[in-house]
Amino acid sequence: xxxxxxxxxxxxxxxxxxxxxxxxxxxxxxxxxxxxxxxxxxxxxxxxxxxxxxxxxxxxxxxxxxxxxxxxxxxxxxxxxxxxxxxxxxxxxxxxxxxxxxxxxxxxxxxxxxxxxxxxxxxxxxxxxxxxxxxxxxxxxxxxxxxxxxxxxxxxxxxxxxxxxxxxxxxxxxxxxxxxxxxxxxxxxxxxxxx
Length: 195
Known about the structure:
72% of the residues lie in helices and 0% in strands. The protein is mainly alpha-helical. The protein is globular, with a radius of gyration of 19 Å.
């Protein structure tokens, strides 16, 4: 498996392959669950339960992509089951429990989670100054604000930002040969950078 999550081995049937799959996938799955569950410990438990279920079915997957898709579905179902159970236990506080059940939200959450994780890994490849400029941009600071924060010229900010974005685009393009996946990641990256 590459640094950015592209699957090199095709299955997770043996222990080593599953260990690699778990190591690369746990953080995005945990953050995906956190979009449903506000309690950190519960989210970690649900992520562990998710991978336990995936492990039990590891021989059934035709590819790691199939396993990853199944992992997100299990994570969603476990999260919704937990929320429904909480709602039954706490009927008097029903207004506090908002169960997201729209499929569009599910897909948006997956795209958001995967994009953020992929961008974090890709940002680690940039120089410290480039990384800091991109992070400040993702926090919503304008080019002027970034220049003031880092005490550099606005033209330097623009130049570094342009070069960093180009490097990220090339890195993602080399890692994700699937055009749809690359398009989604680049669109997500642009949204993060423009906000």
